[in-house]
Write a structure and sequence with these properties.
The chain is an alpha+beta fold and 401 residues long. The chain has 4 domains: 150 residues, Beta Polymerase, domain 2; 128 residues, cca-adding enzyme, domain 2 (Orthogonal Bundle), CATH 1.10.3090; 45 residues, no CATH class; 44 residues, no CATH class. Helices cover 48% and strands 11% of the residues. The strands form 2 sheets. A 7-stranded mixed sheet has the order 3-4-5-2-1-8-9. A two-stranded antiparallel sheet has the order 6-7. A hairpin with a 2-residue loop joins strand 4 and strand 5.
Length: 401
């Protein structure tokens, strides 16, 4: 039975009272069904975290759900209809709504589901107890797995048998560690950890896209470093990629997934395919391979030169990585100043273009390109101080050289 008598209420939550959400829930009710907010939004609200996405579950089967929304002239998109999920757009607000279901058959990656109107059955097929919470339109909370108790304990715990939940979808191994790094406290739940260790080989069968999503979220989580250590000690992390043990360095980096991934992976260059990284993410890893070491000992003029040549992103990465690998103490003023340079000084744009030299009498061709490069080198060496006029005068004076 739901443990509503022991639970707080979300009746005063602003996100729950939002008119467009209430209209969507009312549309289901008008057609004889019931919709409740499910999972993450309820969890985050109870943990004092920001609610960014609101997903719903409902008792109506997909056809009845679609008809209910169309009757209220709401835009419906069949984004996951094979699993009973539709997306409703109401005055610009987007909501995913899924019919209550339980798994009939699973293969470790995807499931065959059967629709139901049993809220407890739907809760018991979810991954973690803190995700098996529901709230109705009035803010009343329904808890079928002591999820609220685990929220109070900051404990990430599988619903029912950890092994059974993992065999339904092996990605839940990574989700267990990612949720612990994000929401947990202390050591991971013992029964969940044991099951993850026993079934870790199942990670090898997951798609690169799914691995990427979970790993990048885990790497950016507040408790990433101690959680990754546990994964490494149990041989779970090496199921995903060969890794280093540079925990001190990783722990001194900001919560940036790509920066931490660069230090953690033994072969960061090979991760583009292994994790299906985006071109931008792969480019950052490549830039980190050749990133110069920077330190507060560099003259201010040299710091500005490097920032100009590297660009803001590569400078930030180089500065954070250099600090993490140094023996400097946390919060050291000189390092703080170095890392903050892009916020204090914006790299200027080189003021001379090729057309400026053409207008000054230069002829298009290799000589013009060489002069542009010479002027930019001199401008950088002069700490970016010469203006356009001074640069053009220098070009004219050296035309015959």
């Amino acid at each position: 039975m739901p443990r509503a008598s022991k639970l707080p209420s979300l009746a005063r939550a602003k996100w729950l009272k939002e008119p467009r959400l209430q209209e969507v829930m009312a549309a289901i009710a008008a057609a004889g069904g019931e919709a409740r907010v499910a999972g993450g939004a309820v969890r985050n609200a109870l943990m004092g975290e920001k609610v960014t996405e609101v997903d719903l579950a409902c008792t109506s089967p997909p056809d009845a759900m679609i008809a209910a929304f169309k009757a209220k002239a709401m835009a419906v998109h069949l984004t996951g209809i094979d699993h009973g999920t539709v997306t409703v757009v109401q005055h610009g607000a987007v909501f995913e709504i899924t019919t209550l279901r339980h798994d009939v058959e699973t293969d470790g990656r995807r499931a065959v589901v059967q629709y139901t109107d049993d809220w407890a059955a739907d809760a018991h097929r979810r991954d973690f107890t803190m995700n098996a919470l529901y709230a109705d339109a009035s803010g009343k909370i329904f808890d079928f797995a002591d999820g609220y108790g685990d929220i109070l304990r900051r404990r990430v715990r599988f619903v029912g048998s950890p092994s059974a939940r993992i065999k339904e979808d092996y990605l839940r191994i990574l989700r267990f560690f990612r949720f612990h790094a994000r929401y947990g406290k202390g050591v991971p739940d013992a029964s969940g950890l044991k099951a993850c260790n026993q079934l870790k080989s199942g990670l090898k069968n997951l798609s690169a896209e799914r691995l990427r999503q979970e790993m990048l979220k885990l790497l950016a989580a507040p408790g990433a470093v101690p959680t990754l250590k546990v994964m490494a000690q149990r041989g779970i992390l090496k199921q995903i990629f060969p890794h280093t043990e540079e925990w001190r360095v990783i722990g001194r980096l900001p919560p940036d997934a790509i920066l931490r991934l660069f230090v953690l992976a033994k072969d960061a260059a090979g991760l583009k395919e292994r994790l299906r990284l985006s071109n931008a993410e792969a480019a950052r890893l490549e830039a980190l391979h050749v990133a110069p070491e920077v330190s507060p000992q560099l003259a201010a003029k040299e710091q500005r030169r490097l920032l100009y040549e590297l660009g803001v992103q590569a400078w930030n990465d180089a500065a954070h990585l250099s600090f993490a690998r140094s023996r400097a103490k946390e919060g050291e003023a000189a390092w703080r100043k170095l890392i903050a340079l892009p916020m204090k000084w914006t790299p200027p744009e080189f003021p001379v273009k090729g057309r400026d030299l053409l207008e000054a009498g230069f002829v298009s061709g290799p000589v013009l390109g060489e002069m542009l490069q010479h002027l930019e080198d001199w401008w950088i060496a002069s700490d970016f101080k010469p203006g356009k006029d001074e640069l053009l005068e220098r070009a004219k004076s050296q035309r015959g050289s």
